[in-house]
Design goal:
Length: 567
Amino acid sequence: MEQLLQKKPGESLASLRAVEGAERLQLSVTGAGLVAFNWTVADDRIAWDGATEILPPQIVQRNHSQGQALLATMNSQVRQRFAALLENRARDTVPFEIDVESPSPMGTIWLMFLGSRIPNSDGATERLTGIVREVTERKHQLHRLTYLATRDELTGHLNRNSLRAELAEAIATAQSQERHCGFLVASIDRLAIINDSYGFDASDEVILAVGERLSRSLRTTDVIGRTAGNKFGVILKNCTESDIAMVADRLRAIVRGEVVDTRAGRVSVTSSVGAVWLPGSASSSQEAMLRAEEALERARSRGRDGYAIYHHSELREGARLRLMSVADEVVSALNDDRLIFAYQPIVDAVTHQPVEYECLLRMVMPDGSIAPAGYFIPAAEQLGLVRLVDRRALEMAVATLHANPGVNLSVNVSGTTAQDSAFLQSFVEYVKQNSVIADRLVVELTETAALHHFEENACFVSRLREMGCRVAIDDFGAGYTSFRNLQMLRVDKVKIDGSYVAALTSSPENQIFVRTLVELAKNFNLKITAEWVGSEEEADLLQGFGVDTFQGFYFGEPLLNPEWKKG
Protein backbone atom coordinates (compact mmCIF):
# COMPACT_ATOMS: atom_id res chain seq x y z
CA MET A 1 0.00 0.00 0.00
CA GLU A 2 2.93 2.41 0.86
CA GLN A 3 4.40 1.76 -2.57
CA LEU A 4 1.04 2.72 -4.10
CA LEU A 5 0.94 5.99 -2.09
CA GLN A 6 4.51 6.90 -3.15
CA LYS A 7 3.39 6.99 -6.78
CA LYS A 8 1.76 9.99 -8.40
CA PRO A 9 -1.84 10.51 -7.19
CA GLY A 10 -3.39 9.47 -10.52
CA GLU A 11 -1.22 6.37 -10.79
CA SER A 12 -1.86 5.42 -7.14
CA LEU A 13 -5.64 5.72 -7.55
CA ALA A 14 -5.63 3.60 -10.73
CA SER A 15 -3.46 0.94 -9.10
CA LEU A 16 -5.68 0.91 -5.99
CA ARG A 17 -8.76 0.48 -8.13
CA ALA A 18 -7.08 -2.40 -9.98
CA VAL A 19 -6.30 -4.13 -6.66
CA GLU A 20 -9.86 -3.61 -5.43
CA GLY A 21 -11.24 -4.96 -8.74
CA ALA A 22 -9.06 -8.05 -8.49
CA GLU A 23 -10.20 -8.64 -4.91
CA ARG A 24 -13.85 -8.26 -5.89
CA LEU A 25 -13.33 -10.72 -8.76
CA GLN A 26 -11.68 -13.20 -6.41
CA LEU A 27 -14.53 -12.90 -3.89
CA SER A 28 -17.08 -13.41 -6.69
CA VAL A 29 -15.30 -16.51 -7.96
CA THR A 30 -15.03 -17.97 -4.46
CA GLY A 31 -18.64 -17.12 -3.60
CA ALA A 32 -19.87 -18.81 -6.78
CA GLY A 33 -18.04 -22.03 -5.85
CA LEU A 34 -15.61 -21.68 -8.77
CA VAL A 35 -11.89 -22.32 -8.93
CA ALA A 36 -9.76 -20.28 -11.32
CA PHE A 37 -6.70 -21.90 -12.85
CA ASN A 38 -3.75 -20.73 -14.94
CA TRP A 39 -1.54 -23.43 -16.50
CA THR A 40 1.66 -22.03 -17.97
CA VAL A 41 3.15 -24.50 -20.41
CA ALA A 42 6.76 -23.31 -20.27
CA ASP A 43 7.20 -24.34 -16.61
CA ASP A 44 4.23 -26.78 -16.56
CA ARG A 45 2.92 -24.98 -13.47
CA ILE A 46 -0.75 -24.64 -12.50
CA ALA A 47 -1.85 -21.82 -10.19
CA TRP A 48 -5.22 -22.41 -8.46
CA ASP A 49 -7.33 -19.63 -7.01
CA GLY A 50 -10.87 -19.47 -5.55
CA ALA A 51 -12.98 -22.09 -3.82
CA THR A 52 -10.31 -24.79 -3.93
CA GLU A 53 -12.07 -26.72 -1.17
CA ILE A 54 -14.57 -28.03 -3.76
CA LEU A 55 -11.75 -29.89 -5.50
CA PRO A 56 -10.58 -33.35 -4.38
CA PRO A 57 -7.12 -33.42 -2.76
CA GLN A 58 -5.42 -35.12 -5.71
CA ILE A 59 -6.28 -32.13 -7.89
CA VAL A 60 -4.89 -29.34 -5.71
CA GLN A 61 -2.25 -31.08 -3.60
CA ARG A 62 1.22 -29.66 -4.02
CA ASN A 63 2.72 -32.12 -6.49
CA HIS A 64 -0.26 -31.63 -8.80
CA SER A 65 0.51 -27.98 -9.26
CA GLN A 66 2.40 -29.47 -12.19
CA GLY A 67 0.24 -30.01 -15.28
CA GLN A 68 1.58 -33.42 -16.31
CA ALA A 69 1.16 -34.77 -12.79
CA LEU A 70 -2.46 -33.62 -12.86
CA LEU A 71 -3.07 -35.30 -16.22
CA ALA A 72 -1.72 -38.56 -14.81
CA THR A 73 -4.75 -38.70 -12.48
CA MET A 74 -7.18 -38.54 -15.42
CA ASN A 75 -8.37 -41.19 -17.84
CA SER A 76 -6.84 -41.56 -21.29
CA GLN A 77 -9.70 -39.89 -23.15
CA VAL A 78 -9.44 -36.71 -21.05
CA ARG A 79 -5.62 -36.74 -21.34
CA GLN A 80 -5.96 -36.88 -25.12
CA ARG A 81 -8.22 -33.84 -25.16
CA PHE A 82 -5.80 -31.81 -23.05
CA ALA A 83 -2.87 -33.04 -25.16
CA ALA A 84 -4.64 -31.83 -28.31
CA LEU A 85 -4.95 -28.36 -26.74
CA LEU A 86 -1.31 -28.30 -25.66
CA GLU A 87 -0.10 -29.41 -29.11
CA ASN A 88 -2.36 -27.00 -31.00
CA ARG A 89 -0.46 -24.51 -33.21
CA ALA A 90 -3.33 -22.15 -34.05
CA ARG A 91 -2.59 -18.45 -33.61
CA ASP A 92 -6.11 -17.75 -32.35
CA THR A 93 -7.47 -18.26 -28.84
CA VAL A 94 -9.25 -21.62 -28.63
CA PRO A 95 -12.09 -22.10 -26.10
CA PHE A 96 -12.52 -25.51 -24.46
CA GLU A 97 -14.90 -27.35 -22.13
CA ILE A 98 -13.76 -30.69 -20.69
CA ASP A 99 -15.59 -32.82 -18.10
CA VAL A 100 -13.33 -34.74 -15.71
CA GLU A 101 -14.38 -37.66 -13.50
CA SER A 102 -12.47 -37.66 -10.23
CA PRO A 103 -12.67 -39.94 -7.17
CA SER A 104 -13.07 -38.38 -3.72
CA PRO A 105 -13.62 -39.65 -0.15
CA MET A 106 -17.36 -38.96 -0.62
CA GLY A 107 -17.53 -40.82 -3.93
CA THR A 108 -16.95 -39.87 -7.54
CA ILE A 109 -17.36 -36.22 -8.41
CA TRP A 110 -17.47 -34.54 -11.83
CA LEU A 111 -15.61 -31.33 -12.63
CA MET A 112 -15.95 -29.13 -15.70
CA PHE A 113 -12.79 -27.37 -16.92
CA LEU A 114 -13.99 -24.34 -18.88
CA GLY A 115 -11.48 -21.95 -20.36
CA SER A 116 -9.29 -20.89 -23.26
CA ARG A 117 -6.02 -21.92 -24.84
CA ILE A 118 -3.80 -18.85 -25.19
CA PRO A 119 -1.13 -19.00 -27.93
CA ASN A 120 2.21 -17.22 -28.02
CA SER A 121 3.44 -15.21 -31.01
CA ASP A 122 4.45 -18.41 -32.83
CA GLY A 123 1.06 -20.10 -32.33
CA ALA A 124 2.37 -22.58 -29.75
CA THR A 125 0.30 -22.95 -26.57
CA GLU A 126 1.50 -20.49 -23.97
CA ARG A 127 -1.07 -21.32 -21.30
CA LEU A 128 -4.48 -22.76 -20.51
CA THR A 129 -6.58 -20.52 -18.33
CA GLY A 130 -10.17 -20.66 -17.07
CA ILE A 131 -12.34 -21.94 -14.26
CA VAL A 132 -13.29 -25.28 -12.73
CA ARG A 133 -16.87 -25.95 -11.62
CA GLU A 134 -18.27 -29.02 -9.88
CA VAL A 135 -21.04 -30.51 -12.08
CA THR A 136 -21.69 -33.77 -10.22
CA GLU A 137 -25.39 -33.06 -9.71
CA ARG A 138 -25.83 -32.10 -13.35
CA LYS A 139 -24.17 -35.36 -14.41
CA HIS A 140 -26.46 -37.33 -12.12
CA GLN A 141 -29.50 -35.61 -13.62
CA LEU A 142 -28.23 -36.34 -17.13
CA HIS A 143 -27.64 -40.00 -16.26
CA ARG A 144 -31.11 -40.14 -14.74
CA LEU A 145 -32.75 -38.72 -17.85
CA THR A 146 -30.74 -41.07 -20.05
CA TYR A 147 -31.80 -43.98 -17.85
CA LEU A 148 -35.46 -42.96 -18.05
CA ALA A 149 -35.18 -42.65 -21.81
CA THR A 150 -33.82 -46.18 -22.26
CA ARG A 151 -34.92 -48.19 -19.22
CA ASP A 152 -38.13 -49.26 -17.58
CA GLU A 153 -38.14 -47.58 -14.18
CA LEU A 154 -39.80 -50.44 -12.28
CA THR A 155 -37.71 -53.38 -13.50
CA GLY A 156 -34.53 -51.74 -14.77
CA HIS A 157 -34.82 -53.65 -18.05
CA LEU A 158 -34.81 -51.92 -21.43
CA ASN A 159 -37.99 -50.07 -22.33
CA ARG A 160 -39.93 -50.80 -25.52
CA ASN A 161 -38.13 -48.29 -27.75
CA SER A 162 -34.67 -49.38 -26.63
CA LEU A 163 -35.56 -53.07 -26.99
CA ARG A 164 -36.85 -52.39 -30.50
CA ALA A 165 -33.52 -50.76 -31.41
CA GLU A 166 -31.63 -53.80 -30.04
CA LEU A 167 -33.93 -56.09 -32.03
CA ALA A 168 -33.27 -54.14 -35.24
CA GLU A 169 -29.54 -54.58 -34.67
CA ALA A 170 -29.96 -58.32 -33.96
CA ILE A 171 -31.96 -58.82 -37.17
CA ALA A 172 -29.38 -56.90 -39.23
CA THR A 173 -26.53 -58.96 -37.72
CA ALA A 174 -28.37 -62.23 -38.39
CA GLN A 175 -28.97 -61.22 -42.02
CA SER A 176 -25.36 -60.19 -42.62
CA GLN A 177 -23.96 -63.38 -41.03
CA GLU A 178 -26.62 -65.68 -42.53
CA ARG A 179 -27.72 -66.76 -39.07
CA HIS A 180 -31.00 -66.67 -37.16
CA CYS A 181 -32.33 -65.03 -34.03
CA GLY A 182 -35.63 -65.03 -32.22
CA PHE A 183 -37.95 -62.63 -30.45
CA LEU A 184 -40.34 -63.68 -27.67
CA VAL A 185 -43.06 -61.80 -25.82
CA ALA A 186 -43.87 -63.18 -22.36
CA SER A 187 -47.10 -61.94 -20.80
CA ILE A 188 -48.09 -62.29 -17.14
CA ASP A 189 -51.45 -64.04 -17.20
CA ARG A 190 -54.47 -62.32 -15.60
CA LEU A 191 -52.57 -59.45 -14.02
CA ALA A 192 -55.84 -57.51 -13.73
CA ILE A 193 -57.17 -60.17 -11.36
CA ILE A 194 -54.01 -59.83 -9.24
CA ASN A 195 -54.63 -56.06 -9.18
CA ASP A 196 -58.19 -56.58 -7.97
CA SER A 197 -57.34 -59.25 -5.41
CA TYR A 198 -54.08 -57.96 -3.94
CA GLY A 199 -53.77 -54.31 -5.02
CA PHE A 200 -51.51 -52.47 -7.41
CA ASP A 201 -48.46 -52.55 -5.12
CA ALA A 202 -48.61 -56.35 -5.17
CA SER A 203 -48.93 -56.44 -8.95
CA ASP A 204 -45.80 -54.27 -9.23
CA GLU A 205 -43.98 -56.77 -7.00
CA VAL A 206 -45.18 -59.60 -9.27
CA ILE A 207 -43.98 -57.75 -12.40
CA LEU A 208 -40.59 -57.13 -10.77
CA ALA A 209 -40.24 -60.75 -9.64
CA VAL A 210 -41.20 -62.16 -13.05
CA GLY A 211 -38.75 -59.83 -14.77
CA GLU A 212 -35.94 -60.97 -12.47
CA ARG A 213 -36.77 -64.65 -13.04
CA LEU A 214 -36.85 -64.25 -16.80
CA SER A 215 -33.56 -62.35 -16.78
CA ARG A 216 -31.82 -65.00 -14.66
CA SER A 217 -32.84 -67.77 -17.05
CA LEU A 218 -31.33 -66.16 -20.16
CA ARG A 219 -27.86 -66.34 -21.64
CA THR A 220 -25.55 -63.34 -21.26
CA THR A 221 -25.90 -62.65 -24.99
CA ASP A 222 -29.70 -62.49 -24.82
CA VAL A 223 -31.53 -59.19 -24.21
CA ILE A 224 -34.66 -58.54 -22.14
CA GLY A 225 -36.93 -55.51 -21.98
CA ARG A 226 -40.38 -54.56 -20.75
CA THR A 227 -42.68 -53.85 -23.68
CA ALA A 228 -45.94 -53.11 -21.82
CA GLY A 229 -47.47 -53.24 -18.34
CA ASN A 230 -47.61 -57.05 -18.11
CA LYS A 231 -45.28 -57.98 -20.99
CA PHE A 232 -41.57 -58.63 -21.41
CA GLY A 233 -39.72 -58.97 -24.70
CA VAL A 234 -36.72 -61.25 -25.10
CA ILE A 235 -34.18 -61.27 -27.96
CA LEU A 236 -32.46 -64.63 -28.51
CA LYS A 237 -29.33 -64.27 -30.61
CA ASN A 238 -27.97 -67.03 -32.85
CA CYS A 239 -30.68 -69.64 -32.26
CA THR A 240 -32.70 -72.27 -34.12
CA GLU A 241 -36.49 -72.50 -34.20
CA SER A 242 -36.34 -75.47 -31.79
CA ASP A 243 -34.16 -73.36 -29.45
CA ILE A 244 -36.95 -70.80 -29.28
CA ALA A 245 -39.48 -73.43 -28.18
CA MET A 246 -37.07 -74.73 -25.51
CA VAL A 247 -36.42 -71.26 -24.15
CA ALA A 248 -40.16 -70.49 -24.10
CA ASP A 249 -40.76 -73.67 -22.09
CA ARG A 250 -37.99 -72.71 -19.67
CA LEU A 251 -39.33 -69.18 -19.22
CA ARG A 252 -42.86 -70.40 -18.52
CA ALA A 253 -41.55 -73.04 -16.10
CA ILE A 254 -39.47 -70.58 -14.08
CA VAL A 255 -42.42 -68.19 -13.76
CA ARG A 256 -44.88 -70.84 -12.52
CA GLY A 257 -42.29 -72.79 -10.54
CA GLU A 258 -42.54 -70.72 -7.36
CA VAL A 259 -45.16 -68.45 -5.90
CA VAL A 260 -44.26 -64.76 -5.60
CA ASP A 261 -44.07 -63.43 -2.06
CA THR A 262 -45.59 -59.96 -1.89
CA ARG A 263 -46.41 -57.74 1.08
CA ALA A 264 -50.09 -58.49 0.43
CA GLY A 265 -49.60 -62.26 0.39
CA ARG A 266 -48.29 -65.11 -1.75
CA VAL A 267 -49.32 -64.97 -5.42
CA SER A 268 -49.30 -67.85 -7.90
CA VAL A 269 -48.27 -66.61 -11.36
CA THR A 270 -48.17 -68.07 -14.86
CA SER A 271 -47.14 -66.58 -18.19
CA SER A 272 -47.93 -67.08 -21.86
CA VAL A 273 -45.33 -66.69 -24.59
CA GLY A 274 -45.54 -65.72 -28.26
CA ALA A 275 -42.48 -65.94 -30.50
CA VAL A 276 -41.19 -65.24 -34.00
CA TRP A 277 -38.14 -66.74 -35.75
CA LEU A 278 -36.00 -64.18 -37.54
CA PRO A 279 -35.20 -62.93 -40.08
CA GLY A 280 -37.32 -65.40 -42.05
CA SER A 281 -40.66 -64.39 -40.52
CA ALA A 282 -40.08 -60.62 -40.36
CA SER A 283 -37.69 -58.19 -41.98
CA SER A 284 -37.84 -55.36 -39.43
CA SER A 285 -38.04 -54.94 -35.67
CA GLN A 286 -41.48 -53.36 -35.90
CA GLU A 287 -42.76 -56.27 -37.95
CA ALA A 288 -41.14 -58.80 -35.62
CA MET A 289 -42.71 -57.29 -32.50
CA LEU A 290 -46.11 -57.22 -34.14
CA ARG A 291 -45.88 -60.86 -35.21
CA ALA A 292 -44.70 -61.98 -31.78
CA GLU A 293 -47.76 -60.21 -30.35
CA GLU A 294 -49.97 -62.09 -32.84
CA ALA A 295 -48.45 -65.37 -31.67
CA LEU A 296 -48.98 -64.32 -28.05
CA GLU A 297 -52.67 -63.70 -28.70
CA ARG A 298 -53.00 -67.24 -30.08
CA ALA A 299 -51.18 -68.63 -27.04
CA ARG A 300 -53.48 -66.73 -24.65
CA SER A 301 -56.61 -67.82 -26.53
CA ARG A 302 -55.89 -71.37 -25.36
CA GLY A 303 -55.90 -70.35 -21.71
CA ARG A 304 -53.12 -69.70 -19.24
CA ASP A 305 -49.48 -70.78 -19.54
CA GLY A 306 -49.61 -71.14 -23.34
CA TYR A 307 -47.03 -70.92 -26.13
CA ALA A 308 -47.27 -70.21 -29.85
CA ILE A 309 -44.80 -69.28 -32.56
CA TYR A 310 -45.71 -67.15 -35.55
CA HIS A 311 -46.50 -68.92 -38.82
CA HIS A 312 -47.61 -67.18 -41.95
CA SER A 313 -51.36 -66.78 -42.45
CA GLU A 314 -52.98 -64.91 -45.33
CA LEU A 315 -55.72 -63.59 -43.05
CA ARG A 316 -53.30 -62.42 -40.39
CA GLU A 317 -50.96 -61.07 -43.03
CA GLY A 318 -53.75 -58.94 -44.44
CA ALA A 319 -54.54 -57.55 -40.98
CA ARG A 320 -50.84 -56.89 -40.36
CA LEU A 321 -50.42 -55.06 -43.66
CA ARG A 322 -53.44 -52.91 -42.86
CA LEU A 323 -51.98 -52.08 -39.47
CA MET A 324 -48.60 -51.24 -40.97
CA SER A 325 -50.27 -49.10 -43.61
CA VAL A 326 -52.15 -47.11 -40.97
CA ALA A 327 -48.92 -46.70 -38.98
CA ASP A 328 -47.22 -45.27 -42.08
CA GLU A 329 -50.14 -42.88 -42.47
CA VAL A 330 -49.71 -41.75 -38.84
CA VAL A 331 -46.00 -41.01 -39.38
CA SER A 332 -46.78 -39.17 -42.61
CA ALA A 333 -49.55 -37.17 -40.91
CA LEU A 334 -47.16 -36.18 -38.09
CA ASN A 335 -44.52 -35.08 -40.58
CA ASP A 336 -47.02 -33.14 -42.72
CA ASP A 337 -48.98 -31.57 -39.82
CA ARG A 338 -52.16 -33.38 -40.85
CA LEU A 339 -53.33 -34.18 -37.33
CA ILE A 340 -56.08 -31.77 -36.32
CA PHE A 341 -58.72 -31.38 -33.61
CA ALA A 342 -62.47 -31.55 -33.70
CA TYR A 343 -63.80 -29.63 -30.69
CA GLN A 344 -66.86 -30.96 -28.86
CA PRO A 345 -68.55 -28.69 -26.30
CA ILE A 346 -69.03 -29.69 -22.68
CA VAL A 347 -72.01 -27.70 -21.39
CA ASP A 348 -73.26 -26.64 -17.97
CA ALA A 349 -76.11 -28.89 -16.79
CA VAL A 350 -78.30 -25.91 -15.84
CA THR A 351 -77.57 -23.23 -18.46
CA HIS A 352 -76.55 -25.59 -21.29
CA GLN A 353 -73.79 -23.11 -22.14
CA PRO A 354 -70.30 -24.43 -23.07
CA VAL A 355 -67.77 -24.37 -20.22
CA GLU A 356 -64.99 -26.18 -22.09
CA TYR A 357 -64.30 -28.16 -25.26
CA GLU A 358 -62.77 -31.62 -25.60
CA CYS A 359 -60.04 -31.87 -28.24
CA LEU A 360 -60.79 -34.98 -30.32
CA LEU A 361 -58.02 -36.02 -32.70
CA ARG A 362 -58.67 -36.35 -36.42
CA MET A 363 -56.38 -37.13 -39.34
CA VAL A 364 -56.61 -35.29 -42.66
CA MET A 365 -56.06 -37.95 -45.31
CA PRO A 366 -54.07 -37.17 -48.49
CA ASP A 367 -57.33 -36.96 -50.46
CA GLY A 368 -58.70 -34.36 -48.04
CA SER A 369 -61.11 -36.67 -46.20
CA ILE A 370 -61.14 -36.72 -42.39
CA ALA A 371 -60.41 -39.93 -40.44
CA PRO A 372 -61.59 -40.28 -36.80
CA ALA A 373 -59.22 -41.24 -33.97
CA GLY A 374 -60.55 -44.80 -33.95
CA TYR A 375 -59.03 -45.30 -37.39
CA PHE A 376 -55.43 -44.62 -36.39
CA ILE A 377 -55.00 -44.54 -32.58
CA PRO A 378 -55.17 -48.38 -32.10
CA ALA A 379 -52.41 -48.85 -34.68
CA ALA A 380 -50.36 -46.06 -33.09
CA GLU A 381 -50.69 -47.75 -29.68
CA GLN A 382 -49.74 -51.20 -30.97
CA LEU A 383 -46.68 -49.95 -32.83
CA GLY A 384 -45.38 -47.52 -30.19
CA LEU A 385 -46.24 -44.32 -32.08
CA VAL A 386 -48.90 -43.03 -29.71
CA ARG A 387 -46.39 -41.10 -27.60
CA LEU A 388 -45.60 -38.96 -30.64
CA VAL A 389 -49.31 -38.48 -31.28
CA ASP A 390 -49.99 -37.51 -27.66
CA ARG A 391 -47.12 -35.03 -27.69
CA ARG A 392 -48.44 -33.43 -30.86
CA ALA A 393 -51.92 -33.26 -29.34
CA LEU A 394 -50.55 -31.43 -26.29
CA GLU A 395 -48.66 -28.95 -28.45
CA MET A 396 -51.77 -28.31 -30.57
CA ALA A 397 -53.97 -27.79 -27.51
CA VAL A 398 -51.50 -25.36 -25.94
CA ALA A 399 -51.23 -23.39 -29.19
CA THR A 400 -55.03 -23.17 -29.42
CA LEU A 401 -55.26 -21.93 -25.83
CA HIS A 402 -52.67 -19.22 -26.52
CA ALA A 403 -54.62 -18.09 -29.60
CA ASN A 404 -58.03 -18.17 -27.87
CA PRO A 405 -57.79 -16.62 -24.37
CA GLY A 406 -61.42 -17.15 -23.43
CA VAL A 407 -61.55 -20.90 -24.06
CA ASN A 408 -60.99 -23.95 -21.82
CA LEU A 409 -59.83 -27.18 -23.48
CA SER A 410 -59.44 -30.80 -22.40
CA VAL A 411 -56.85 -33.08 -24.01
CA ASN A 412 -56.46 -36.84 -23.64
CA VAL A 413 -53.43 -38.88 -22.60
CA SER A 414 -53.64 -42.39 -24.05
CA GLY A 415 -53.46 -45.48 -21.86
CA THR A 416 -50.11 -46.54 -23.32
CA THR A 417 -48.54 -43.12 -22.77
CA ALA A 418 -49.82 -42.98 -19.18
CA GLN A 419 -47.48 -45.91 -18.43
CA ASP A 420 -44.38 -44.04 -19.64
CA SER A 421 -42.83 -42.06 -16.79
CA ALA A 422 -40.36 -40.28 -19.10
CA PHE A 423 -43.23 -39.05 -21.28
CA LEU A 424 -45.24 -37.92 -18.28
CA GLN A 425 -42.25 -35.91 -17.07
CA SER A 426 -41.80 -34.25 -20.48
CA PHE A 427 -45.56 -33.51 -20.55
CA VAL A 428 -45.33 -31.70 -17.22
CA GLU A 429 -42.25 -29.76 -18.36
CA TYR A 430 -44.03 -28.60 -21.51
CA VAL A 431 -47.04 -27.40 -19.52
CA LYS A 432 -44.65 -25.65 -17.12
CA GLN A 433 -43.07 -23.79 -20.04
CA ASN A 434 -46.58 -22.61 -20.99
CA SER A 435 -47.85 -22.03 -17.46
CA VAL A 436 -49.84 -18.95 -18.51
CA ILE A 437 -52.50 -21.24 -20.05
CA ALA A 438 -52.34 -24.02 -17.44
CA ASP A 439 -55.51 -22.98 -15.61
CA ARG A 440 -57.50 -23.38 -18.85
CA LEU A 441 -56.21 -26.89 -19.62
CA VAL A 442 -57.91 -30.11 -18.51
CA VAL A 443 -55.91 -33.34 -18.87
CA GLU A 444 -57.98 -36.53 -19.23
CA LEU A 445 -56.68 -39.94 -18.13
CA THR A 446 -58.64 -43.14 -18.65
CA GLU A 447 -59.60 -44.86 -15.42
CA THR A 448 -57.85 -48.15 -16.16
CA ALA A 449 -54.63 -46.47 -17.34
CA ALA A 450 -54.47 -44.13 -14.34
CA LEU A 451 -54.80 -47.00 -11.90
CA HIS A 452 -52.51 -49.45 -13.68
CA HIS A 453 -49.45 -47.29 -12.92
CA PHE A 454 -50.94 -45.67 -9.86
CA GLU A 455 -47.92 -44.06 -8.20
CA GLU A 456 -46.56 -42.50 -11.40
CA ASN A 457 -49.96 -41.14 -12.38
CA ALA A 458 -50.71 -39.86 -8.86
CA CYS A 459 -47.45 -37.87 -9.03
CA PHE A 460 -48.32 -36.74 -12.57
CA VAL A 461 -51.75 -35.51 -11.43
CA SER A 462 -50.27 -33.73 -8.43
CA ARG A 463 -47.69 -31.84 -10.48
CA LEU A 464 -50.26 -30.77 -13.08
CA ARG A 465 -52.63 -29.49 -10.38
CA GLU A 466 -49.79 -27.56 -8.72
CA MET A 467 -49.42 -25.60 -11.98
CA GLY A 468 -53.14 -24.87 -12.14
CA CYS A 469 -54.25 -27.58 -14.57
CA ARG A 470 -57.34 -29.62 -13.87
CA VAL A 471 -57.31 -33.39 -14.26
CA ALA A 472 -60.23 -35.63 -15.18
CA ILE A 473 -60.75 -39.39 -15.07
CA ASP A 474 -62.30 -40.42 -18.39
CA ASP A 475 -64.54 -43.49 -18.87
CA PHE A 476 -65.35 -43.48 -15.15
CA GLY A 477 -67.13 -46.71 -14.23
CA ALA A 478 -65.43 -48.82 -16.89
CA GLY A 479 -62.47 -49.79 -14.67
CA TYR A 480 -61.70 -50.75 -11.10
CA THR A 481 -61.84 -47.51 -9.14
CA SER A 482 -62.06 -47.91 -5.39
CA PHE A 483 -62.85 -45.20 -2.83
CA ARG A 484 -59.23 -45.22 -1.70
CA ASN A 485 -57.75 -44.92 -5.20
CA LEU A 486 -60.13 -42.15 -6.18
CA GLN A 487 -59.19 -40.21 -3.06
CA MET A 488 -55.45 -40.68 -3.53
CA LEU A 489 -55.43 -39.62 -7.19
CA ARG A 490 -56.74 -36.14 -6.22
CA VAL A 491 -58.32 -35.43 -9.60
CA ASP A 492 -60.75 -32.57 -10.20
CA LYS A 493 -63.55 -34.33 -12.02
CA VAL A 494 -64.76 -37.61 -13.50
CA LYS A 495 -66.47 -38.33 -16.83
CA ILE A 496 -69.06 -41.10 -16.61
CA ASP A 497 -68.50 -43.71 -19.31
CA GLY A 498 -70.92 -43.06 -22.17
CA SER A 499 -72.00 -46.69 -22.46
CA TYR A 500 -73.99 -46.26 -19.24
CA VAL A 501 -75.59 -43.03 -20.43
CA ALA A 502 -76.60 -44.12 -23.93
CA ALA A 503 -79.47 -46.37 -22.73
CA LEU A 504 -80.16 -44.52 -19.50
CA THR A 505 -83.88 -43.76 -19.94
CA SER A 506 -84.76 -47.37 -20.78
CA SER A 507 -82.44 -49.13 -18.31
CA PRO A 508 -83.24 -49.01 -14.57
CA GLU A 509 -79.99 -50.89 -13.92
CA ASN A 510 -77.96 -48.17 -15.65
CA GLN A 511 -79.84 -45.51 -13.70
CA ILE A 512 -78.93 -47.18 -10.41
CA PHE A 513 -75.31 -47.58 -11.50
CA VAL A 514 -74.96 -43.98 -12.72
CA ARG A 515 -76.60 -42.59 -9.57
CA THR A 516 -74.13 -44.63 -7.48
CA LEU A 517 -71.16 -43.29 -9.46
CA VAL A 518 -72.40 -39.73 -9.04
CA GLU A 519 -72.80 -40.19 -5.27
CA LEU A 520 -69.32 -41.69 -5.07
CA ALA A 521 -67.81 -38.71 -6.91
CA LYS A 522 -69.81 -36.19 -4.86
CA ASN A 523 -68.44 -37.71 -1.66
CA PHE A 524 -65.00 -36.57 -2.82
CA ASN A 525 -66.19 -33.14 -4.01
CA LEU A 526 -65.51 -34.02 -7.63
CA LYS A 527 -67.22 -32.40 -10.61
CA ILE A 528 -69.06 -34.86 -12.86
CA THR A 529 -69.47 -34.89 -16.64
CA ALA A 530 -71.81 -37.32 -18.39
CA GLU A 531 -70.71 -38.40 -21.87
CA TRP A 532 -72.87 -39.46 -24.85
CA VAL A 533 -75.89 -37.43 -23.73
CA GLY A 534 -78.30 -37.81 -26.64
CA SER A 535 -81.66 -36.46 -25.55
CA GLU A 536 -83.42 -34.00 -23.28
CA GLU A 537 -84.84 -36.91 -21.24
CA GLU A 538 -81.34 -38.22 -20.51
CA ALA A 539 -80.17 -34.72 -19.59
CA ASP A 540 -83.08 -34.25 -17.17
CA LEU A 541 -82.36 -37.58 -15.45
CA LEU A 542 -78.67 -36.82 -15.16
CA GLN A 543 -79.26 -33.34 -13.80
CA GLY A 544 -81.55 -34.86 -11.20
CA PHE A 545 -78.77 -37.25 -10.17
CA GLY A 546 -76.43 -34.28 -9.63
CA VAL A 547 -74.33 -34.33 -12.82
CA ASP A 548 -72.60 -30.97 -13.37
CA THR A 549 -71.90 -30.94 -17.13
CA PHE A 550 -73.02 -32.78 -20.26
CA GLN A 551 -71.20 -33.88 -23.39
CA GLY A 552 -72.95 -35.45 -26.35
CA PHE A 553 -74.42 -34.89 -29.81
CA TYR A 554 -77.60 -33.46 -28.29
CA PHE A 555 -75.58 -30.46 -27.09
CA GLY A 556 -73.11 -30.23 -29.95
CA GLU A 557 -71.19 -32.38 -32.40
CA PRO A 558 -67.40 -32.16 -32.70
CA LEU A 559 -66.51 -29.30 -35.07
CA LEU A 560 -63.21 -28.71 -36.87
CA ASN A 561 -63.69 -24.94 -37.00
CA PRO A 562 -66.06 -23.72 -34.28
CA GLU A 563 -67.00 -20.04 -34.31
CA TRP A 564 -64.78 -19.18 -31.35
CA LYS A 565 -61.58 -20.60 -32.86
CA LYS A 566 -58.83 -18.28 -34.02
CA GLY A 567 -55.45 -19.29 -35.33
